[in-house]
């Protein structure tokens, strides 16, 4: 990232990015990994790159209309979820949720550990895919994208208590699903 933009806030960058491509590129570099994590968890890694591209094309196109009433990350993640739903279509799906790009094996040179990590990622992917959409969205936005509860509430358009409840129920369900697959905390 351009050193001159590294210390800039998102709010500062969004204003400048309306007329400066380098500032927009700084926003993309800063947020693309989290958008990719959300997309991969919702639509699978095969479609995640397309979703990320669609998200940032939409951000670029609509940045002039962004008033800053919400945090940039909130607006960005709402666009990301909308792009995921566009890919998924109108139907509710239980997509496989590959986490290959999110969790790397701790020792890729050790075939046993790499195999165990791949097995764990697969189990986690299957369990995450089994969550109801509302719980999966909340858990993904919190655990993979690192959003605060208030930001998640704004992205999803629900009350803070609802977000907390969804995350709690999602975590509880994930734990139960993983325990059934032989994964212990």
UniProtKB/TrEMBL annotation:
Its BP terms in the Gene Ontology are: DNA-templated transcription initiation
Keywords (A to Z) from UniProt: DNA-binding, Sigma factor, Transcription, Transcription regulation
**One Pfam assignment:** Sigma70_r2
Q: Name one GO molecular function term.
A: sigma factor activity
User: Which SUPFAM superfamilies does this UniProt record tie to the protein?
Assistant: Sigma2 domain of RNA polymerase sigma factors, Sigma3 and sigma4 domains of RNA polymerase sigma factors
Q: Where does the RNA polymerase sigma-70 region domain start and stop, copy by copy?
A: 27-86
Q: Which residues form the RNA polymerase sigma factor 70 region 4 type domain?
A: 122-174
Identify the InterPro entries for this entry: RNA_pol_sigma-70-like, RNA_pol_sigma-70_dom, RNA_pol_sigma70_r2, RNA_pol_sigma70_r4_t2, RNA_pol_sigma_r2, RNA_pol_sigma_r3/r4-like, WH-like_DNA-bd_sf
Can you tell me which family this protein belongs to? Belongs to the sigma-70 factor family. ECF subfamily.
Q: Which named protein is this?
A: RNA polymerase RpoE-like sigma-24 subunit
List the top taxonomic levels of the source. Bacteria, Thermotogati, Deinococcota, Deinococci, Deinococcales
